[in-house]
Amino acid sequence: MAESENRDLNYLKGELENGDWRRREDAAELLAELADPQAVDPLIKALKDEDCHVREAAALSLGVFEDKKVIAPLIEALDDEKASVRYAAAVGLSGAGDKSAINPLEKASNDENPVVKKVAQMALNSIKERQ
After folding, report:
1. At a CB cut-off of 8 Å and minimum separation 6, what does 125 contact?
2. What sign does the CA torsion over 66, 129, 57, 26 have?
3. Global pTM?
4. Phi and psi for 65 in degrees, rounded to 5?
5. How far apart are CA 90 and CA 99, in angstroms?
6. Nearest alpha-carbon partner for 88 in 51, 49, 124, 61
7. What distance, in Å, lies between the first and last C-alpha atoms of the chain?
8. Contact criterion met (CB below 8 Å) for 119 and 91
């Protein structure tokens, strides 16, 4: 990793701790663009953020990583109180493509929110097609 990329990574990881939720949200989104595996653990932690925008961004970002440890936290996020986070978790699971997400996504395809329901079904279909 180039020195500038490492500085960017460290800066963004630090921004996930910022007091301003907008900056935390931006950091979570930008960490996905870097796609550095060192971002996985801080993004998993961000799934527990007090702000739903940050949790949503973290869930979406985790979908770019092919790392088995993102699966369980994303499955847990399917039960978030906010529909936007549940939607993002389904998208993240679709990106991760792990078959262990099939049963939780089947459950999420019955979500009360029609957008979550639709995205969960799409994620489920995507994962099944890759098997």
Report:
1. none
2. positive
3. 0.93
4. -100, 130
5. 13
6. 61
7. 32
8. yes
Residue 50 sits at φ, ψ, to 5 deg, of: -70, -25
pLDDT in tens, 8-53: 999 999 999 999 999 999 999 999 999 999 999 999 999 999 999 9
61 half-sphere exposure, CB direction, 13 A CA radius: 32
36-46 per-position pLDDT tens digit: 999 999 999 99
Q: What is the rounded distance in angstroms from the CA atom of residue 111 to the CA atom of residue 97?
A: 20
Closest to 87 (Cα-Cα) out of 103, 105, 72, 70: 105
Quote the DSSP letter at residue 110.
T
**Per-residue confidence (pLDDT) for residue 3, from 0 to 100:** 67
Cβ contacts of residue 98 below 8 Å, gap of 6+? 68, 71, 127
